[in-house]
Amino acid sequence: MPSVSSPPAMPRPALRIPVRFAGPGAGLGELTWGQREIWLTMLRQRSWLPIGGWSRLAPGTTVAGVAAELRWIMARYQPMRTRLRFAADGRPLQCVADRGTVGLDVYDCPDDADPEAFVAALDARDRARPYDFVEEWPVRMAVVRHRGVPTHLSTVMTHLVTDGLGGRIFLSEVARHQAEGTAEPTAGMQPLELAEWQGGAAGQRQNASALRHWERTLRRLPPARPVSDVDGPRYYRGELVSSALPTALHVLSEKADADSSQVLMALLAVAATEDGGPAVLRPMVSNRFRRGLETVVAMVAQRGICVADVRGPSGEALPFAEALRRVGAAAMAGYKYAYVDPDATAALAAGLGVDAEAGLWYNDRRVASRQGFAGEVPGPDELRAAPPGRFRWTVAQDDPFDPLSVDVDDAAGGAFLLTVFTDAGRLAPAGAEALVRRAEALAVQTALGLLEGGQR
Questions:
Q1: What angle do CA 88, 98, 158 make, to 5 degrees?
Q2: What stretch or stretches form a coiled coil here (predicted)?
Q3: From its phi and psi, is residue 46 left (phi > 0), alpha (psi between -120 and 50) or beta?
Q4: Nearest residue to 378 via CA among 292, 287, 452
Q5: Distance separating alpha carbons of residues 250 and 101, to the nearest angstrom
Q6: Are strands 405-410 and 360-364 parallel, antiparallel or unpaired?
Q7: Which domains, from first to last, does the chain contain?
Q8: How many CB atoms lie within 10 A of CB 311?
């Protein structure tokens, strides 16, 4: 894995506690489709894509208690006991251990220092440190003590362990175990079993069906072309914090009786096709509607692909209701066929000579507002009172991000956080900012039209 920026200087741990564990399900096998897709992303972005974070420990928590919790986690979750091995041809394989020892680091924050700032720096350091996929366990856990008392915990994992929804399932199961001392048995197909299914007859039938959709869709993509030269950093990340967008989205999803994620995707699709042509969308799909994947803690999310015509033959904007219908129909196929071998889709795109990174990549990661909005539907005055979002660029670098993409999260006060990534060789930062601002303005304009009777 390529090098990363130097981690911040930190003191050495006061001690490292060896935590021995044992669990079922040892073996060596192929990566699952989800694992292979995130592995390809890691290679493309030159990063091990660490996930996790830090938290405050409950009063009375002991280091021994944290060690016991780490032992339980390692035993329960197969992906936490998984490291990589490489075949003779370089192909990565998953190697699940049935036993082992993982280190729990304990740090002493200086008495006169802020333990929250200390653990935040420790968390950042552990994310920045290079990761050895063959030798290291997938988790780095550290306790911070302040004046002898455990106060904070940092947990950093490689993204091969799980996706976002699996992470939420993991946290809820750990919390239940902490509160009750028990947990339901693990459910669903663990990665070794899942990889075996995907390589078998049933999995290959699913893959063949998905590839037919991908071929039809890929044929609508533009041809591969060289990217433009860039003077300065090539990859940018920015953030739009908007209260106007969720206010308008509440109106639109209620009036259209449509899923808010579908409405948001349609807004972004229209905003991304200002110059005409079909909207190419790459939604992140959880795949947890598949049997055996509903509650598994594993990396099963994958990118789907769909294309929708959201403008008329002369490039004019369609009525939003029609654009929403077309995006919804295309998205259903995109969700259905995101469960696919990523190596096969990459080979298909290369064989067709199309731009496999074209379009808008979209990841709706909301939790609080994902299943609906609280309160009454906003009125016109509330819509008009919501100011345009605040935008700022946060990162400019040469290591790649995903192509043009938008991640959506809930933010404080009911706002939305849209994290925007762009390759300046494809779309300049100003163009990426303009895209999300157009989506926000379109949402408000369309919602006002519906409330005031100007649109149906």
A1: 65
A2: none
A3: left
A4: 452
A5: 49
A6: parallel
A7: 15-196 (3.30.559.10), 214-451 (3.30.559.30)
A8: 20
Q: How confident is the model at residue 9 (pLDDT cuts 50, 70, 90)?
A: low
Indicate if the pLDDT at residue 7 is higher than 60.
no
In angstroms, the CA 66 to CA 150 distance is 10
Determine how β-strand 390-397 pairs with β-strand 302-303: unpaired
- Averaged pLDDT, 41-55: 95
Mean pLDDT of the chain: 93
Tokens of 76: 């329960």
Count Cβ atoms below 10 Å from residue 205 Cβ, excluding itself: 10
* The 3-state secondary structure of 344-413, one letter per residue: HHHHHHHHHCECCCCCEEEEECCCCCCCCCCCCCCCHHHHHHCCCCEEEEEEEECCCCCCCEEEEEECHH
Confirm if 413 and 243 have CB atoms less than 8 A apart.
yes
CB count in 10 Å sphere of residue 18: 9
Tokens standing for 89?
């041809």
